[in-house]
Design goal:
Layout: H1 3-21, E1 38-45, E2 50-57, E3 60-65, E4 69-74, E5 79-85, E6 95-97, E7 100-105, E8 108-112, E9 118-123, E10 133-135, E11 138-142, E12 147-152, E13 158-163, E14 173-175, E15 178-183, E16 187-192, E17 198-203, E18 213-215, E19 218-221, E20 227-232, E21 238-243, E22 247-248, E23 253-255, E24 258-264, E25 271-278
Antiparallel strand pairs: 1-25, 2-3, 3-4, 4-5, 6-7, 7-8, 8-9, 10-11, 11-12, 12-13, 14-15, 15-16, 16-17, 18-19, 19-20, 20-21, 22-24, 23-24, 24-25
Length: about 280
């Protein structure tokens, strides 16, 4: 064998030995998994009335009010971090899809590249009411004609489409190869993310379904009913429920280790944030 062959063989053997010596990586474990039953850990009354859907980023809950204020609350300490005048909401706020920006205009979805040029556009059967959601190389959204779509993010081509019994009302939640879709027929559908088949559905005791929230493999379902339901995306089964102390005014959010509810007292009209933790 030539010298170069001996060197190559030795390198391969050394690499194999090093690979065997590497300790096996342990799978990542969620330090704050959502488990039921839940118990109230505290509450925080707010000034004004919540408008739109609150958001969570880095353990901070952000919400705007009809009175024109933006409030940031630290979920772990249940304290107000800041409160300022809110800028006017922009209903056309674009969604990101990698290096593309997604814009909706009635029944048309456009992907805009970094030069401001249209990379592709897609015309749906009906009006696109909720923001599209990007997950990996795919984009998911629905329209007013009860059609739900999965597009290729790079080309805008249809991967699959599925007509539902109700019109998709809110942005979808994608988790573990499944898609949760809240529809106008008081049902949350659980679809296959790859092929669009309906795997199961969850009836909701209200015509009003707020925006869904992901909590690991769990999706939180909130409606005008005081019952907040946790749907396990892996099995399609109910992981737990919680009865709120007032009428919900927005969808529950997950800020580990807390589920945060937004409720209104019917007698006083005052609104508050309610923080729930596993018992």
């Amino acid at each position: 064998m030539r010298l170069s062959g001996w060197i190559a063989a030795g390198a391969l053997a050394f690499a194999a030995m090093g690979a065997r010596a590497q300790p096996a990586r342990k799978p990542l474990v969620d330090p704050f998994p959502l488990r039921f039953p839940l118990a109230e850990a505290g509450s925080l009354e707010i000034e004004g009335h919540i408008a739109g859907q609150p958001r969570v980023q880095g353990g901070i809950v952000y919400f705007t009010t009809r009175e024109g204020h933006l409030t940031a609350v630290v979920a772990s300490s249940r304290s107000v971090l800041s409160r300022s005048s809110a800028s006017p909401a922009d209903p056309g706020r674009p969604a990101q899809a990698g290096d593309l920006v997604l814009r909706t205009d009635a029944d048309t979805l456009r992907a805009i590249d970094g030069r401001g040029q249209t990379a592709w556009e897609f015309k749906a059967e009906g009006a696109i009411a909720a923001d599209p959601v990007r997950a990996g190389r795919r984009i998911y959204f629905g329209d007013s004609e009860r059609m739900f779509y999965c597009l290729d993010a790079a080309t805008g081509r249809v991967r699959w489409r599925r007509r539902l019994q109700g019109a998709p009302m809110r942005p979808a939640v994608v988790a573990g190869g499944r898609v949760a879709v809240a529809a106008s027929n008081s049902v949350v559908y659980r679809l296959s993310a790859t092929g669009g088949s309906i795997l199961s559905w969850q009836a909701v005791p209200s015509r009003v379904i707020y925006e869904l929230a992901a909590a690991g493999p769990i999706v939180l379902i909130s409606s005008a009913s005081p019952t907040v339901t946790a749907l396990d995306m892996r099995t399609g089964k109910t992981a737990g429920q919680y009865e709120a102390s007032g009428s919900p005014v927005a969808g529950a959010v997950w800020s580990p280790p807390c589920v945060v509810l937004f409720v209104e007292d019917e007698a006083s009209g005052r609104q508050k944030l309610v923080f729930l933790r596993s018992r």
